[in-house]
Each structure stands twice: as structure tokens, then as C-alpha cells.
Amino acid sequence: MALSFKERKERRLNGPDLSRKKSIDKHIKHLVELINKEEVYCTASSCSGRVVLVARTDTEDGQVQKKGCKWLLVSHNVVDWNDFVGHLRNKEGSIVMKFEPMIMHVQCATLTDAQKLHATSLASGFKNSGLTISNSGNITLYVKFIVGEANKKMFENQKRIERFTHTLLMELLSTYRQITGFSTVWKQTLSTVILVNLLAASFIEENSRNLF
Q: How far apart are CA 56 and CA 65, in angstroms?
């Protein structure tokens, strides 16, 4: 007999963390907890967003060798310029830098539940949400610009996480208010999320002055 959604959720949340990091990124921990409080949702995997620097080896014909690449830097926070440059010293071959925004896989009990979460995600700015039934001086200047742009994207990514958390919480509070009224538990939850968002906003404001 097939397991119910509730049984599958309990098995996943109580099972071992299969990720390489073995923990939830701190920037989305409160969001993951908020989603998993709902009976109809279960987070499967997630990443709060990251800046990645990868060294790859070029073949003799100039092609990039994708296998065996070396991860030089993986940061879930804004990148310090001096630290970034340090990872580039004495490196050979092709070096690729990219920014990856927050990604989260959420299992939903029904299609309707999935559509509600999808709509909330889109409204919060995550447009890719979907459902699944030479000259060294110039190079340094350009790379420093890219680092700054990546940091700006990281700040925007964190702001989207906050908006998603806030919008989802307001949606859930509205639903519960219609059914059972505004309970003490949800008052405590709202206070906690507001505090977390204030701390996050303070962190973003403080670090935005040091993009480079």
C-alpha cells in the first residue's frame, strides 16, 4: 500500500540529511521551518543562494574540460574582494564564476497546494519558479565589477527570501484566522519572523557598504 503524504513527510524530515553540507543554510532556515509546519508541504532540498568560483582545465584544442573541475570558492554570503583575489592566485586554466539564486524543492500534498506556493514564490520575485508533475589591469577591473554584481545579486536574493517568508506567513495567518482565529502560537511565530527579518535587514544594510 502506498504511503500517505503525511507518512512520506515524516519519513523524509526524520531521516538523515543527504546533502553535502548536512545542514540547512542559515539564511533560509526560518523559511524551511515555516513551510514544514504546514501539513501540506515538505521541503526536499534547498540552497539559500551562493557565489561559486570553479577552476577548469583546458584541453590542447582549447576546449574546456568539464570533468574533474576544482571548486575554489563557495560562499552563501557576500564575497570579500581580498578573499576572492586570494583564490585566483597561481591558478591555471579556465576559471568560472557564477551566482546561483535560492533554490528550494518542496513536495506538496495536492496540486492546489502546489499552485498556492508557486503563486507566492512568483509574487516574491522568484521568476524561475515552476511546477514539475588579456590586459591584467582591465581584467582585474572587470572581475572586481563582477564580484560587486554578484554581491548585489546575493543581497537581492536574501531580500526575496524575506519577502517570500513574509508573504507566505501572511497568507497562512489569513487562512488560519478565517478558520480558528489568531492563535497564541501564530502570534509567537509572527514575532519570531519579524525579529529574524529585522536582523537580516540590519545585516544587509551593514554589508552593502562593503561590496568591494
A: 6
Spatial separation of the C-alpha atoms in residues 158 and 115, rounded to whole Å: 23
What is the C-alpha R_g of the chain?
21
Taking the C-alpha atoms of residue 147 and residue 152, their distance in angstroms, rounded to an integer, is 9
Which tens digits make up the pLDDT trace of 111-170?
A: 888 889 888 888 888 877 888 874 444 444 455 556 677 888 888 898 899 888 888 888
Q: In what helix (H) or strand (E) does residue 119 lie, and over which residues does it extend?
A: helix 111-123
Report in angstroms the alpha-carbon separations of 13 from 35, 38, 69, 107, 181.
Answer: 12, 13, 32, 12, 28
Q: Read off the pTM.
A: 0.64
For the chain, the straight-line distance linking the first and the last C-alpha, in angstroms and rounded, comes to 57
